[in-house]
Amino acid sequence: MGSGRWSTHDYTSGMGARRAAGSPHFSHDHAIRTGKARSIHATLDPLKLKDGPRESRDSAEHPLTLPIAVIFDVTGSMGGIPVILQEKLALLMDVIIARANIADPQILVGAVGDSLCDRFPFQVGQFESDNRFDEQLRNLILEGGGGGQDMESYGLAYRFAARHTATDAFEKRGKKGYFVTIGDEKPWPHVTAAEVEAIFGIAGEADEAVEDLIAKARERWELFHIFPTQAAHGGDDAIKGRWRDLLGERVIMLNEAELVCETIAGLVHMLETSHDLDKVMDDVGLKGARRTAVRNALVPMTALRLPAHLATGALPASHGGTAGRFTTI
To answer: Which pTM does this prediction carry?
Structure first.
């Protein structure tokens, strides 16, 4: 995994061909809904994690990989977010590669639901440098479930980040990747040992508190949560407060959910280049109210910026292994 390069031409051609043929962009979701498939797509099956972690590795083709993971809540109203992102992948990759000058991004996508009631509470792909991550995104099952309360299984995503990933960016350069979750509900307080065994295929020794999983994940990942304030639970101050308790200033309050792609692109661009936020907004190509919405969402993140040579992990790691890390965690 991780070989090849992103091609906007191939992405656009594929979109056009599916439209012309009347084929669904999210074909596996369609297959599930029509009874032609019954399980998570093979490229997204978390049971395969028992065989080893998802890896983002350097190569001659990609010598300075930057891992970026995006995990969606696909319950209820949140199920449309992957569709929005998929429609804007060319913009995302153009900003990250061409505008932010990040040569070797490796993207992973995944989805969370509610492990108490959903058939498919966790799906996760591989780190990919080319259009295969678009294929994996389109293989997500947009279950649209949830348990009718205000909590979902985001802890599974943090368990994955903490215990089932390996990256050369961190292991070789002491540089953390980006791990972005998206959703409008709270995480369940624990990931249970029974969930770990059922979902990851690994014997769990004990239940794990979401706070502990976040603490472990942030050792190697820059964690962010995008909270769409116009979603079903977007006005719930208790939910917002819970996320702020867990992630502090790294909760991104976004007024318009359809701008999630631009927000991720702007976040990575700003923190990797340390460019001024207005310059970043210019590169993302936003104007008017849309620009204002994304800019306002990212303003609190400006405090996290480092000089560009540090943000890109260009300095050799010290004996403490801290080069290329943000200092405001």
So the answer is: 0.91
Phi and psi at residue 191, to the nearest 5°: -100, 120
Instruction: Give the closest residue to 6 by CA, choosing from 91, 84, 70.
Output: 91
pLDDT at 231: 66
Task: Give dist(CA 81, CA 84) in Å, integer.
Answer: 5
DSSP code at position 21: H
Summarize pLDDT for 70-98 with one digit per residue, the tens: 999 998 767 788 999 999 999 999 999 99
- pLDDT tens for each residue of 213-236: 999 999 999 999 999 987 666 677
Specify the pairing of strand 190-191 against strand 208-209: antiparallel
Q: Are 70 and 264 in contact (CB under 8 A)?
A: yes
The answer, yes or no, to whether residue 169 has pLDDT greater than 70, is: yes
Q: Distance of CA 164 to CAs 53, 202, 238, Å?
A: 4, 11, 30
Indicate the DSSP class of residue 316.
Answer: P
Backbone angles phi, psi at 67, to 5 degrees: -80, 135
Tell me the sheet residues that pair with 198.
Answer: none
**Which pLDDT belongs to residue 239?**
93
Q: Report all structural domains of the chain as residue ranges with CATH numbers, in order of start.
A: 8-311 (3.40.50.410)
Under 8 Å CB-to-CB from 303, ≥6 apart: which residues? 249, 328
Phi-psi region of 174 (alpha: psi -120 to 50; beta: other; left: phi over 0): left
